[in-house]
Design brief:
The chain is built from 1 helix and 12 strands. It has one helix at residues 2-16; strands spanning 25-33, 38-49, 56-72, 75-94, 97-114, 117-136, 140-149, 154-166, 174-185, 190-202, 205-216, 220-232. Strands 1-2-3-4-5-6-7-8-9-10-11-12 form a 12-stranded antiparallel barrel. A hairpin with a 2-residue loop joins strand 5 (97-114) and strand 6. The protein is globular. It starts with a helix and ends with a strand.
Length: 233
């Protein structure tokens, strides 16, 4: 089943690749905290229908892995989740703002460690939706994202602002600094993360490092760190 999912994702990404350069974006990232919980993702987005001055339709494919722990009778049990989301979306630019919405199926594999028993593996299919708002100015930008997955009624949101702190006239690289705030939760879990971000742009590649304080209903207070990489192709 896992090989089939990876094959389907590869086929989807190859089908999404644009016919001309500069039409799509690829993105990846990784995050880990002091509780050994981690999250890693990889995705690609490219337009398929363009209208001059109007909205355009795009396709996106993302795959991710999540590792976390929970307490049962005082014992910590591990779990990991792999998911794939092929989706269809629409984007519209109004002045300096760009608004996007996308939706698609979520294919998920969950492996959980059980107390005094063998691991359980579960395959699930659900629906995923996401809204985005991005404001761009020459010296600063702002991003807001909100998503919802009907599997576990899980929501996730992020607010991120960055300002340009250094941009040489003839050489690389533009440098940004800012702040990040993320909230998430489901029927039996809540969590929030906040902290500074710093990024550098080299050509079409943008690398961002982040970290800070987190609090959740599972492990309470802690710290996290990670990075994001995106580039146009």
């Amino acid at each position: 089943m896992t090989r089939l999912i990876l094959f389907l994702l590869t086929a989807w990404i190859l089908a999404c690749l644009p016919l001309e350069s500069g039409a799509g974006d690829a993105f990846t990232g990784f995050q880990i905290d002091n509780k050994n919980q981690y999250f890693i993702y990889l995705g690609v987005r490219t337009p398929i229908v363009r209208t001059p001055g109007g909205p355009y339709v795009f396709v996106q494919a993302t795959t991710s892995g999540l590792g976390y722990s929970s307490k049962t009778n005082g014992q910590i049990l591990d779990a990991n989740v792999q998911s794939i989301v092929p989706s269809l979306g629409i984007t519209k630019t109004i002045g300096d703002w760009t608004f996007s919405a996308l939706t698609g199926p979520q294919l998920r594999r969950i492996e959980e460690q059980r107390l005094n028993a063998s691991n359980t593996i579960d395959y699930q299919v659900g629906v995923y939706g996401q809204l985005e708002a991005f404001y761009w100015h020459e010296r600063w930008n702002f991003l807001a994202i909100g998503s919802y997955a009907d599997l576990d009624n899980f929501f996730w949101s992020r607010l991120r602002g960055k300002v340009l702190v250094y941009k040489p006239e003839k050489s690389c690289c533009a440098t940004y600094a800012g702040w990040d705030m993320t909230g998430m939760g489901s029927g039996d879990f809540r969590g929030v993360m906040t902290g500074p971000v710093g990024g550098i742009q080299v050509g079409k590649v943008f690398v961002l490092a982040r970290g800070g304080y987190q609090h959740s209903t599972t492990f309470h207070s802690g710290a996290y760190g990670g990075f994001d990489i995106s580039f146009a192709f």
